[in-house]
Amino acid sequence: MKPHNESTFNAAEAFGLISKYRRLMMIGTTLGLTLFAVAAYTLPKKYKSYFTLTIYAKYFQNPLIHDFMPELSDPGEMKSERETMIRQALTPEFLDSLRRKYGIYHSKNGADAIPPGILKRILILKRMAEGVGLYHPAKTGSEEAAARVDLLTHIQIFDLNNTTFHVSFVYTDPDVTLQVTRDIYAQVIRTLLETHMNNLVTVRDAIRKRLESLAFSLTATAPDPRASIRPQVVSDELADVRNQIRALSTQYTEDHPALKALRDRERILVRWQGASSENGSEPPSGQENAVAGDQSLPTVKEIYGDLMKKMNYLNIALDADRAHQGAYFATVEIPIYPDAPLWPKKGLLALWGLALGFIGSLSIAALREYFNRTTLRADVLAERLGVPLLGVLPIIPWNTPMKSERGN
Amino acid sequence: MTTKPALLQHPPALYDRLKDLIHYSEIKRLAYKIIAQQQQKRFRSLAVLSSFPMEGKTLFCAAMAMAYAETSRASVLVVDTTTHQNSKSLTLKDCLDPSCTQIEYLSLAERRTKSNGALSMPIDVHLARRQPSVEAEVVEGKAISVSVIKESDHALITKVAEESAKQYGLVLLDTVALMARNKNNIDPLLAANLTDASVLMVSPKLLNASNLSACLKLVEDPALHLIGMVSNEEFFQ
Q1: What is the average pLDDT value for chain B, to the nearest integer?
Q2: Residue B153 placed within a domain
Q3: Which of B12, B24, B213 sits opposite A394 (nearest CB)?
C-alpha cells in the first residue's frame, strides 16, 4: 500500500552518506575504542611462560640393549611416545602438589570470585533444588578431579616437529606462572630420565635373577661363591619356590611334574641354605640343577655367558645414563619470566574496539538510511495526493527554558 | 529595581512559550507559503485537518495565527471546533495570548452549548434558521436531535466562515481528527467543506498507519479544498 522510494546505494552517494552520518560514526568508533580500552585495563591478565624441549631418538634406541628392549624407529610412533611421556609426567600427585604449593586452582569453579551475598543465595537455591531432586551435589573426589582438569587446561603441550615439544603454562600471576613452568620442566625431565632408567634397571634385575639361578647349575662340582656370599638370594628363591608350591598344590597332586620339579628345587635350596649358614657350602649336583632348570649343563653355560655379557652391557648403559643424563634431551628454550601479559593485549583490543565501533556505527547508519529511504515520507504523500507540502513544523524543545527565560 | 521572589513567580503560560515559535524559520516559511496560497486561491477561511488526534493541528493553528498576524499585519480569528479533547492534547485557548489584539479566539462548541442549537451573536440567527431544518423535523426520536445539531453546526460554521472573512485576514478552524469516534464532535469534514480551504497535518502516526488508504480516501474528496500538507515529525507529548 505504501509507496516506497528507491532504497539502493550507489558509489556516488557513499561520500554524501559518510558526511551525513559522520557524527554517528565518530561517536560509535570512539565509543567502541573507549569500551575496549577500558576492557583492556580491567580484564584479568593472563601470563604465559613456556619451555621448548627436544627429545632425541637415541632416548628410544640403545644398541647395547636392543636385544631386550624393542627399539622405536617409526617417526610417528616416536612422536606420540614422546608426547605421551611428557603428559605422563603431569600425574595427579604432581598437579595436587602444585595446588598445595601455589594455590593455583580452587576446588569449586571460581567460587572464590563470587561475592558472599550471591554465594549464600546460590547455596540456598542449591539446597532447594537438592530437596526437589533437581540438583545433585558433586562428590569430593569428582571436585578434585574437576580441579585437576581445570589446571590441566592451563598447561598446553604441542609439538613443533617430530622431536621438539612446546610446553606452556598460563596463569594470572607472572611469578607463579614462571615457578609452575619451572616445576613442570623439572618434572618432565625427571620423569623421562626415571622412565628410561627404570626400564634398564628392570631388565638388569631380571637378568641378574636369572644369572643367580643359573649360577648354581654351573657350580655342580665347585662351590658357588654366591651361595655363601649372598645367602639372601637363596632365601628369596626358596621363599619364591615355596609360594609356587603352595599355589600349585591347591590345584594339582604331588605327582604333577611341575610340583615335582619345585619340590626338588626346594630340597636343593634348603640344603644350600643350611650349608651357607654353617659357612661350609655344599652345592647341589649338576644333575640336580639340570633337572631343576630342565636344561643340560653346556646349554646352561652358554645361557649364563650370554646373560652375563648382556648384564655387563646393561650396567654400562646404566652407568652411561647416570653420567650423561642430558644427552637424551636438549632444552631449546628454558622457562623465562613473562614480562608482558598474554591477554588482554592493549593494542589488539584497541584495534578491535576501533574496528567494531566503526563497523557497528556504519551498520546503524546503513540501517537508518535504509529505513529513511523505505519509510513513507510526508513529501511523498503530498505528491501522491497532488498537493504541495507547505512546510514542516519545527521540533519544539518543550523541556528547555524559553528564550525570554534564558535571556533573563 | 525589585524582582518577585521565585516562589511568587507564576510558571510561564503556554502561549508565552509558543511566542518563541514565530522566530523559527520553519514557521516563518509556513506563514509566507500560506499567504502566497491565499493570494493565489483567494481564501480567507482555512480548516486544519488531521487523520488522528495529536498530530499538531492546535499547535499549527496557534503558531500560524501568531506568525500570520506578525507577517501580514492582519488580524486572525482562530476558531476551535473541538468539543471533547484528549487530556494530552493542547487546548487552543491556552495557546493564544489573550492580550494580543490581532488574534481572536472563538469556540464553536461553547457557542453551540449556549444557544442550545439556536445561534447567538454575532452570527445571524435568521440565516441559520433558513437552513434546511424542515426535513429533520419529520424524523422521529434521536434522529431529530442529531439532525438539528448537524444543521446548527452547518449554520454555525457557515456564518463564522462567511462573516468573519470580512473582518479578519485569516480564519483558522482547528478541527477534531478525521478518524475521531465521538459523534458529538463538530464534523471536521463538514468544517472543511464549509471553509474556503483546508490543510492536512501529517505526522508519523499517519505515515505509519495500517489504515493509511482509508485515511487518504477521506482527504481525497475535492470538496475539502485541500491546498497543502504540513508535516509534523514529532508527536506532541
Answers
A1: 76
A2: no
A3: B24
- Residue A126 belongs to a domain: yes
Q: Which of B231, B234, B236 to mutate to test the interface with A (most CBs of A within 10 A)?
A: B231
CB B8: neighbour CB atoms within 10 A? 7
Q: Which helix (H) or strand (E) holds A389?
A: strand A389-393
Looking at the structure, tell me whether residues A165 and A248 fall in a common domain: no
Is A162 among the domain residues?
yes
For residue B79, tell me if it sits in a domain.
Answer: yes
Query: Which residues sit opposite B80 in a β-bridge?
Result: B107, B174
Other C-beta atoms within 10 Å of A193: how many?
17
What range does the domain containing A353 cover?
A: 1-7+17-43+344-386
Pairing of strands A47-55, A164-171: antiparallel
Same domain (yes/no): A73, A101: yes
Query: Is residue A188 within 8 Å of A50, Cβ to Cβ?
Result: no
ipTM entry: 0.78
Q: Which residues contact B148 (CB under 8 A, 6 or more apart)?
A: B117, B133, B136
Sort out which chain A residues have CB atoms less than 8 A from B59's CB and list them. 393, 396
Q: Are residues A134 and A175 in the same domain?
A: yes
Report the gap between the CA of B6 and the closest CA in chain A (Å): 13
Model confidence over B194-225: pLDDT tens digits?
888 999 999 888 888 888 888 888 888 888 99
